[in-house]
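Q: What does the assembly look like in three dimensions?
Context provided by user:
Components: two
Sequences:
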Amino acid sequence: MSTDDGERAALEKKMRKALQILILQRGRNPGVKGWEMKRHLGKDYKTILQVLSTDLKSLGMEVHEVPGIEGTDDSTRYLLRFRESPTLSESETAGFRIDDLAVLASSIALVNSKQGRIGRKELETFLREKFPRWRVDYSLDRFIKRGYLDQDDKGLLRIGWRTRAEVDEKSLMTIILSRETAQK
Amino acid sequence: MPEKQDKKLEDILRLIELCRSVQSSSVDPFQVDIRDKLQTLKKHLPDWKLIDVMLMDSEALQQLVGIIKLQDQWIKHRASSLYIDPLLLELKIRLLSREDLANSFTKCWHPIAQVDQLTAKGLEKAFIYWRDLVPMSERFRNEFGSYGTVPGQMDFEELQSLNIFTKEQFETRLNKLNDELVQKAGDKEIDYRSFIEAETFEEKAVRAYLVAFIVTEGRANVRTDPLTEKIFISSIVGQAGPETKSVAIEVI
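A: Here is the predicted structure of the complete assembly.
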């Protein structure tokens, strides 16, 4: 076996390891932190993850980076996520009703337009113009529990960690604003 | 003259209330005229003789600082590409159908892919760990000798019997620590680990123990950010919320 073949085999082995680490749930929180990746894959872990992300492209997946609060490499969290967005019917089979997704889209957009925070009561009042009261209460509680929204003890809602990891917020705002509305 | 004094005091109370209501809602923080409010405080300051009123004056000043911080965040957010006029957005959401809104969301949604299951390797590791695990009764014998006890829960009565606390000392320290939390955190959240930090590990453990009581009594709230795993603590003024759960935090 030549040196090149040996290096390639070592890289492929590390990529398989990286995929296994990313795909298996470790503890309560999704993803793996930079320091943990370094421990498993060595100091070149970023290059390995980049190559893995490129290889996963053909399967419609990517390695996504969420910067940590300290802004260091060690605190950065790496997640495996779908590159392509699911269709509406695929989302429904995953347990989200159209109404749920519409409530979530409206909530994220509204929170962002209000400097990143909105009173829960204010949001509920707004959403109840469009959705039944029980649906609003149920969906908001569910999205807070799943980490899409974050509620503090003053009843103020903010964008949750899962939205930061899964949703391209800028695109959401642009798509909502640029959508043509039905003629009434 | 006392009537004039009352009027001035009312000004301060109104200012504190205004700042609090702006901070707990999504109202534009620039609606508070900082310069005017500071002038008012400056004008009244020489008349204050009582310590309680002076404290109220400093509370008003602290609230104004909170508003300035909000104004700073407001400008930064407005300068970012995420800013869109809320009225325009509200109108757009009202006009769009539920399907359109759901479709907009799915177009920019990239769900996390993760599997939560056992593997053969994981099972093997768990078996080896379990097989090699020393029984609880023997685990700490080397470190603590024959009188050593295994880790477990220690209630307040036990601490009293060990002379770590008397009831008076406990309550005094609890209140003192709660005051420290209120002073350090104010209306904000602060880092839990920095808060319990002390010069010695023993003192740190005592602080963590007391914080657990403060949280259980509903005087403080502990929150963990799942992405960063950072733990935050904040003081609760008034009644605690209905949703509570018990969590264990390691003191290292």
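Follow-up: The mean pLDDT of chain B is 81.
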